[in-house]
Design goal:
- Two copies of one chain form a homodimer.
- Chain A has about 150 residues and is an alpha+beta fold.
- Helices cover about 40% and strands about 20% of the residues of chain A.
- Chain A has five helices and six strands.
- In chain A, helix 2 packs across helix 3 and helix 3 packs across helix 4.
- The complex binds manganese (II) ion (MN) (2 copies) and zinc ion (2 copies).
- The site of one zinc ion has 7 residues of chain A, from loops.
- Chain A binds a DNA duplex (30 and 30 nucleotides) through helix 4.
DNA sequence: ATTATTATTGATAATGGTTATCAATATTAT
DNA sequence: ATAATATTGATAACCATTATCAATAATAAT
């Protein structure tokens, strides 16, 4: 049963339908603190809806990215990872600390205000100078986590 | 013929040998303004040394990344791209503006000083708070380039 | 020098995440 | 109803990257 929470309207606005698989995938993304891969999502969804296929997960994620609901990350471990964007997540704007050894990801929000101020300035300057319409940014730190640094 | 420019010593220091293929690959990376993929590099190298294989290019790039000579980027177009790190490049510290439509990449250096100051602060705080040894960072803007934004 | 050890190479095959294809089914518009 | 459109899952294909392996080159030991 589909519980409308505004998603229905949002999908229809883009010519899409809100289906069970799509709702299930959104539900998984809304209720995790992790940075799930397509297959991670597939496996969770699969427990409740064994009929939903991996292909549908990929397709839905593409749509969600295109709708600006989900951000697709590459943390260098060979698979893409997905996270709800700021506007649709209970998490606030944040960036990532990535362990290059074990791929552990840590969300951080330190200095986000200073950062946003800087980003805003940069954004303005760059859009003007290069006639570029900036839609987003990404920033991450690499290193070795507690366990991996020996 | 191998012209030693300090590379030889650097390779030996890590237990590697400076070979013709490795030198050729370094030469390509040193003389481009672009952000080349493994295959891009292979094709250039191949013109002068048809015997060098794509596998060797991948292997050498891995080593160079591991040595801190090269940075491996993911700009979202399905293949990794490589660029000499600040210390080994004539380019200065910079970041990237990426067109999500046509994958055009623009280097920019605006506000790099402010950014480095902020990054430094963030770095200090994060390493302490999460007991993380930070070795690098990445930052990029996404959007639509002049041609693609219409 | 000769020999033993180690590092490097390229061809080839395999891997594995992601996409394309397509016929079946569900939803919506007429 | 009926036609048009969207969505689906199974399957096969794609394609960048890795693993394998025997051949060769460079270095170290004798
Ligand atoms: Mn996160
Ligand atoms: Mn660059
Ligand atoms: Zn780790
Ligand atoms: Zn473009």
């Amino acid at each position: 049963m589909i519980v409308d929470t505004g998603w229905h309207k949002r999908f229809r606005g883009q010519g899409y339908r809100l289906t069970i698989p799509r709702e299930a995938i959104l539900h998984v993304l809304s209720n995790t603190e992790e940075h799930l891969s397509a297959e991670d999502i597939y496996m969770v969804v699969h427990q409740k809806y064994p009929a939903i296929g991996l292909t549908t997960v990929y397709r839905t994620l593409d749509i969600l990215v295109q709708m600006g609901v989900v951000f697709k990350f590459d943390f260098g471990d060979g698979r893409s990872r997905y996270e709800l964007t700021e506007h649709f997540s209970r998490k606030k704007h944040h960036h990532h600390l990535i362990c290059t050894m074990c791929s552990r990801i840590i969300d951080y929000t330190d200095f986000i205000d200073d950062e946003l101020e800087l980003l805003d300035r940069t954004k303005k300057t760059l859009s003007k100078k290069h006639n570029f319409q900036i839609t987003g940014h990404m920033m991450q730190f690499y290193g070795l986590c507690e366990k991996c640094k020996t």
